[in-house]
Design brief:
Largest sheet: 5 strands, antiparallel
CATH topology: Creatine Amidinohydrolase
CATH architecture: Alpha-Beta Complex
Distance between the termini: 31 Å
Bound molecules: magnesium ion
Order of helices and strands: HHEEEEEHHEEEEEEEEEEH
Number of helices: 5
CATH superfamily: Creatinase/methionine aminopeptidase superfamily
Helix content: 25-40%
Number of strands: 15
Structural class: alpha+beta
Number of domains: 1
Strand content: 15-25%
Mean pLDDT: 97
Shape: globular
Radius of gyration: 17 Å
Length: 268
């Protein structure tokens, strides 16, 4: 496998792809509430993506049946939307992909459904912070292990479990390109980052053990101990040697009334 670096023009196209997904998550942020089914949210997302002259990126990919991966509570990732309503106190990890101009966007956020337990809130906060810890290391000259180490160090120090079996990845005309981007690793190890690389960085962090199981549906990954898991994902390019965010949580934050400057350091 080879790393496919992108030109400036391609990176601008990928920003559009990521933006479709960012807007989809923002639209969903207003709809996530007790009583709503993940299948209903999936239908909304598919309609919205198509309205943006884009195509759902996950639908049919490796035979996945839906537009969104919907993973509540102890589900880590790859949950399949269904007719079970969300209830107060749930968390729901929504992972969304879209193809626009032939390039993929791939981007995830874990939402709170109503009021959630304090320890769960903290898990979401630390997982999102670890995403930015990782992104800070995605710069020319650094290596895959630097990103993984940053995420693992930040979350394990706080007592959480880092899922090993699922990883981030290069992104482009394919959903999964080289290199794989584990959320664990050793400083200075692995492939070296260069100008024009685009990756999806996506910590999957568990409140308890890092160990996981897979459901017999062949998709759903869940924690072995049944404790909650969080997932946040951004698309990032190396521009002028530094990490530049292509995706944004700004639409989610607008919908939820959250003030945040967390993305400012990754925009030029
Ligand atoms: Mg994703
Ligand atoms: Mg991904």
């Amino acid at each position: 496998m080879m790393i496919k670096v992108k030109t400036r023009e391609e990176i601008e196209l990928m920003r559009e792809s990521a933006l479709v997904v960012s807007k989809t998550l923002g639209m969903l942020a207003k709809e996530v509430k007790p009583g709503v089914t993940t299948l209903y949210l999936d239908t909304l997302a598919e309609e919205f993506i198509r309205s943006q002259d884009a195509i759902p990126g996950f639908l049919g990919l490796y035979d996945f049946p839906n537009t969104l991966c919907m993973s509540p509570n102890a589900q880590v990732v790859h949950g399949i939307p269904n007719k079970k309503p969300l209830v107060e106190g749930d968390i729901i990890s929504i992972d969304c992909g879209a193809i626009k101009n032939g390039f993929y966007g791939d981007h995830a956020y874990t939402f709170e459904v109503g009021e959630v337990a304090e320890e769960t809130k903290k898990l979401l906060q630390v997982t999102k912070e670890s995403l930015y810890e990782g992104i800070r290391q995605f710069r020319a000259g650094n290596r895959v292990g630097d990103v993984g180490f940053a995420i693992q160090n930040y979350t394990e120090k706080r007592g959480y479990g880092v899922v090993r079996e699922l990883v981030g990845h290069g992104l482009g005309r394919e959903m999964h390109e080289d290199p794989e981007m584990p959320n664990y690793g050793r400083k200075g190890r692995g492939k070296k980052f260069i100008e024009g690389m685009v990756v999806a960085i996506e910590p999957m962090i568990n409140l308890g053990t890092h160990r996981i199981n897979q459901l017999s549906d062949g998709w759903t990954i869940l924690t072995k101990d049944g404790k909650p898991s969080a997932h946040f994902e951004h698309d990032v390019a190396i521009v002028n040697g530094k990490p530049e965010l292509l995706s944004t949580f700004k639409y989610v934050y607008e919908a939820l009334g959250i003030e945040s400057d967390e993305e400012d350091e990754f925009r030029y």
